[in-house]
Structures are given as C-alpha cells and as structure tokens.
Design brief:
about 300 residues; alpha+beta; 6-stranded mixed beta sheet; Beta-lactam/transpept-like; Beta-lactamase; 6 strands; Beta-lactam_cat; 11 helices
C-alpha cells in the first residue's frame, strides 16, 4: 500500500494545495483539523479499472482518522441498498428509488432515515427497554456488519449505524447512540468507496453514479441551503468544464466533501476532504480554495508519484 503524508511528500498536488489553503486561513484552521485522501488518474476512472485505490499511488493526510461523517455517510447507505437488492436481501420498490434520489440530490435526512429502516428492518420510533431494545439495536447493526464482513482494511474504524437528522435523533434512534455510538468514517474509507463505484466494482455502480451527478446544482444561485452541495464545498472550486460527482455533508462541527471529477481531456481524480471543528464547519471558503489549488497543481504538473 502506498500511503503518503503531507510532510513526506510536500510536492504532491494535494499536499501543496493543503498547505496553501491553510495559509490562506491565517491560523483559523490547523492541519490537525483536516483529513485528506486523494488519487489522480491519467484516464477516466469510469472507463477503466486500475484496481483497488490502496494499490495505487494515493495521497493521505490523516486519512485513517475516524470522524463524524455528517451526510457523507449517505453514500454508504446507498451502496448498501444497491448491494442488498443485488443479493436478494431487499426487494425493489419505487419508494426506495425516490428516497435514494432525494438522499443524494438534496441530501434529504427524511429519505435517509426511511432507507436505514428499509435496510435493517429497524425503523425509528418510541424508546424501547430491555430485550426489545437489544433486538432492535442488533437489527440496526446489519449495515455495519455487512461492511465489516468485507474485511477491507480501508474500512477499518468506520461505523454506519444511523440516519441523519436536522437537529437530533429521538426515541430508540437516540438510545442506540448512547455512549457516543454514532456514525464514523475516514477520508480513506470514503475515497475508497467512491473509487470502487466509479470504476464499476460495486453492484449498480452506474445507477449510483447517476445519483451523484452534481451538474444540476452547479452555477445556480437560488438553491435551498439545506440541499446545496456546491456552495462552500469542493465542487464550488472545481473548474466549470470538469464533470463532477459528489456527496457533501456538514453540521455545526463538521464540513466534508467527497468528489470524483473528470477533465475534458479524460484525466480524473478522487478527492475527499473532511474538516472538524466549529470554525471550519462555519467556513465556506476553505474547501473551494483547496479544490481550486488542487486542480491547478494536479493538472499543470500531473504528479501521480509513481
């Protein structure tokens, strides 16, 4: 596995972009508050299969540090939905399709909570006690157990247990998070899943890619802030001529984005940037600046560190 750190590989486009974007924040954001995973490709990843991300030259800055993923976790539920249907664990239903579209397009929390219930059979509801709560919690862990069963080192340390909420879970959904038992992802796990989907190594990969297309939101000025996955995120800083597929997320304490992008000449990249803290969560300039710098450095010198 090729694992690169900022200090050891300062010439990498992601390292240079990170260093300069942090300098622009004048100390408001520190390296410890940011996690990055990135990989560059000489051809469209959608049209080739170079193998697993960790077997390629890729860049890491704290990429294995687990963080609360906000809405980036929705891609993991989408992937589980595709796989469960492919495996015959869950029958197709039009309502699942509608929920999946809304979950990815406008990051609907309601759609996510619905799909978590569909995937696990453990719907949100009133508080439970004793054996009833234990059985419900065991059912709710099915998606997590499915990811664990893949035995991928890239998914080490992740937790995919619950839906996303506007303010807070209630009832039994709150009970399962007692003891800080909330969702966790790493930049590496998110970049790995995007890499696998883009290269067609996951069931219904084309369907998932279509749901992540971000063109319908780019260049728009009247987007609902709750569903806007462009303004203040990586896609905001990626040149307009690039095609972009993405899943962003933020809370009062986090701001993340995960993108796959292609240039007109076919060169492409995956970039996941996760930031944690009250200041980076509120800031809408760091991720776009990082993306602009990354694109400038990556494709003027296209350094894949082979």
């Amino acid at each position: 596995m090729t694992k690169m750190g900022v200090e050891a590989h300062k010439s990498h486009p992601a390292a240079r972009a990170l260093e300069q974007a942090l300098q622009m924040k004048n100390g408001g954001l520190t390296p410890d508050e940011v996690c990055v995973a990135a990989c560059l490709y000489d051809a469209p990843l959608r049209l080739s299969d170079p193998g697993a991300l960790v077997d390629l030259p890729w860049f890491s800055h704290q990429a294995d540090k687990p963080l609360y993923p906000a809405s980036v976790v929705k891609l993991f539920f989408l992937n589980a939905l595709a796989a469960f249907r492919e495996e015959g664990r869950l029958a197709y239903h039009d309502e699942d399709e509608r929920a999946a579209r809304e979950m990815m397009a406008i990051s609907s929390n309601e759609a996510t909570v619905y799909l978590v219930g569909r995937l696990t059979g453990a719907d949100d509801g009133a508080p439970l006690e004793g054996e009833a709560l234990a059985q419900w919690c065991a059912a709710r862990e099915q998606v997590q157990q499915w990811y664990d069963s893949q035995n991928r080192s890239e998914f080490a340390g992740i937790r995919v247990l619950h839906g996303t909420y506007q303010d807070s879970p209630y009832g039994r959904a709150k009970q399962i998070r007692t003891g800080n038992n909330g969702n966790l992802l790493t930049a590496l796990s998110a970049a790995t899943l995007m890499h696998d989907i883009a290269r067609g190594a996951r069931p219904q990969a084309d369907w998932m890619m279509k749901l992540m297309e971000r063109e319908f939101q780019r260049g728009q000025s009247n987007l609902d802030p709750d569903g806007d996955q462009v303004t203040g995120f990586l896609t905001d800083g990626i040149p307009a001529e690039y095609k972009v597929w993405s899943k962003a997320g933020h809370t009062s304490w986090t701001r993340h984005d995960l993108v796959y992008a292609e240039r007109p000449d076919g060169k492409s990249f995956i970039l996941c940037v996760m930031s944690e803290g009250e200041w980076p969560a509120a800031d809408k300039s760091f991720l776009p600046a990082f993306a602009r710098l990354f694109c400038d450095y990556a494709f003027t010198e296209h350094n894949t560190l082979k």
